[in-house]
Amino acid sequence: MANESKKTTSSEARKTDKGELLGYYRDMLLIRRFEERAGQLYGMGQIAGFCHLYIGQEAVVTGCKAAMKDGDQMITGYRDHGHMLALDMDPKGVMAELTGRATGYSKGKGGSMHMFSTEKKFYGGHGIVGAQVPIGAGLAFANQYLDNKAVSLAFFGDGASNQGQVYEAFNMAKLWDLPVIFVIENNQYAMGTSVQRASAETELFKRGISFEIEGRLVDGMDVLAVRDAAAEAIKHARSGKGPMILEMKTYRYRGHSMSDPAKYRSRDEVTKTRADHDPIDAVKTRLLKEGWADEDELKAIDKDIKAVVKESADFAIESPEPDPSELWTDVLIDVEA
Ligand SMILES: Cc1ncc(C[n+]2csc(CCOP(=O)(O)OP(=O)(O)O)c2C)c(N)n1
Ligand SMILES: [Mg+2]
């Protein structure tokens, strides 16, 4: 099977239980409500610069996180708020960074695209398309060298999957059987360019064939399908068999960033995907169908989450901006003579 890429199917009846599914519901809803609030704060002028929302893609990071163990790492591009929340980074610190406050994860100097937490195993937050992929392979190289059994998950987009450095990373990752999972978040557009317009091979899970890296096509709107695919890939990598590619078919509901005229797709396409394939609605439907929750309980969860998000926004807005002297800190490292 070494160089045969294959498709996995999603099915409604994947194994789960009440506690697990309610957990995913909560985790995905936190990302969605957080992003909605970030969108509002952007509109109010509280967030400046770039801001790329993750709404619609919540199942990808939530399912991957479910398959990770302590010590495993994530690295991604600029659409990164969901990854941080999935890794239990504090929503207050993330929102404060978005609004450029001293209490943010990068002391207000990084903004939306540049946050890190080595404590929570989050390695950024990178603005250069594809740059995180070789760094993710580097994290895996360090894990292999240290023999700590940790796996790194490098997330990138369909657009990034056409970057040269991605293939240099694929080659080395397989050559040395590094414990890295390449998670392609195929939300079908790179800014305003569709996969069909930009890619000679549109089945991105096949992109590892010439490097002997197995790939899987995964329904990225189904958190349980993502969980299962990530579990298989992580097990593969942790056991010393090297990298795998997971192509997560997903969709972003909002524009590429907050300034996107959205002329490249119809309103209908977005509305239809939201109505028919929403990852949170799918979990809600299953919870109701199994009798694991009723509408009132789900509303109560939403209320709790809205309170957490409100608290993070209030904290951010009430926090001070960085002192101008911070311009001179964290620029270069101090090296002793
Ligand atoms: C090297 C480089 N080229 C171009 C850009 C401008 N740019 C920013 S995001 C983006 C699209 C990337 O799309 P994709 O990888 O599909 O990720 P998505 O935004 O859909 O999550 C481009 C071209 C950049 N930041 N870096
Ligand atoms: Mg994309």
Automatic annotation (TrEMBL):
EC number(s) on file: 1.2.4.1
Enzyme kind, highest EC tier: oxidoreductase
Superkingdom of this protein's organism: Bacteria
Keyword Oxidoreductase: yes
Keywords for the protein's UniProt record, in alphabetical order: Oxidoreductase, Pyruvate, Thiamine pyrophosphate
Reaction it catalyzes: N(6)-[(R)-lipoyl]-L-lysyl-[protein] + pyruvate + H(+) = N(6)-[(R)-S(8)-acetyldihydrolipoyl]-L-lysyl-[protein] + CO2
Dehydrogenase E1 component domain residues: 27-324
Quaternary context: Heterodimer of an alpha and a beta chain.
Primary role: The pyruvate dehydrogenase complex catalyzes the overall conversion of pyruvate to acetyl-CoA and CO(2). It contains multiple copies of three enzymatic components: pyruvate dehydrogenase (E1), dihydrolipoamide acetyltransferase (E2) and lipoamide dehydrogenase (E3).
Name the record gives this protein: Pyruvate dehydrogenase E1 component subunit alpha
Record organism: Algimonas ampicilliniresistens
Native organism taxonomy: Bacteria, Pseudomonadati, Pseudomonadota, Alphaproteobacteria, Maricaulales
